[in-house]
Amino acid sequence: MDIFAKMRTNRGELGKYQESADGYYMFPKLEGEIGPRMKFMGKEVLNWSLNNYLGLANDPEVRRVDAESAAIYGLGAPMGARMMSGQSTNHEKFEQMAADFVGKESAYLLNFGYQGMVSIIDCLVGRHDVVVYDSESHACIMDGLRITLAKRFAFAHNDMASFEKQLQHAEKVANETGGGILVITEGVFGMAGDLGALDKIVEYKKKYKFRLLIDDAHGFGTMGKTGAGTGEHFGVQDQVDVYFATFAKSMAGIGGFVAGEKDIVSYLRFNLRSQIYAKSLPMAMTLGAIRRLELIKEHPEYKENLWKIVRALQSGLKEAGFDLGKTESPVTPVFLQGGVPQATHMIKDLRENYGIFCSVVIYPVVPKGVIMLRIIPTAVHTLEDVKYTIDCFKEIQKKLTANVYPDTMAEYRK
After folding, report:
1. Segments in the chain below pLDDT 50
2. What is the pTM assigned to this prediction?
């Protein structure tokens, strides 16, 4: 059989909608300056679908540093991987700043977040070790687990009874193999917005002697008193052994970093395949990351503005009777009842008639019969944006209840 044959007959769980969804429901093109107001299909929309939490994407100071750095260095320098020829004083400067900010001894700058996490997992555990991880972990964690030879046990999401049961299995295996145990979870779960139970997880550390790796992509910059993340929020940052964050959210950039004890970070520097065999983060992006982190530290009002919008949006939606699940973060899921057909008609109505752009999540990401509208508030949204959105959501809820949105795919095409 031609290996491509199966790809032409089975497009995958999401790919089966490609013909009618591509360019509108999936891979939509938002145009214009990044912010609450952008253009979609030539029309202005109120945009709730960007992870630009602190509004740094179009911050004048950020744009200035990005432009000046690119003018000086271009996007090529430094050429080569960090270990060979891509090291610089600026890369090291950011690493010290990041380590200090999240309360760790050392940090290592990564060229990408996703592949960084994959490589971190592969690097930390071997075939004699055991990983215990939250069943709702991000795809980058799952992909990291796929390539490791370590034994793996998943615990039910934030369920401590399940967690301890899997720890017991892990301990038994580790005793037999002579390996160690690594626990992996997230600070903020990016779909539902709930927090990893870090405060509860660390209570088991002495009994089961594991190390803790946290993916805090959505928590860095948004959670904790200073924005140092979900560990800071719970007061357990010192119990997080390996801390990972990406620049794709609060930092409005590309890249990421991993932080922890100096010896462990040093080990990662010399063994992370995704960094050893890949080009260093460009200098312009590194300098941009430095300025972004400086701004986060210098302007606590950015995070305060974000949470002002978050509180207004989430409290308003709850008062209107909407189900937001268990979110404790800026990520704001709105759970509605309906299938894929109703979801597609609803999103089209929101975009075409109400001028609101938000992401829609359907099966298999959520259970069948559930529609999740995912809203990402930012520091640059306004209270007027919040009020308008809540009013519009009330109207679409009435339409959904009245069966205005057809339970058919006949009108699915854009």
Report:
1. 412-414
2. 0.94
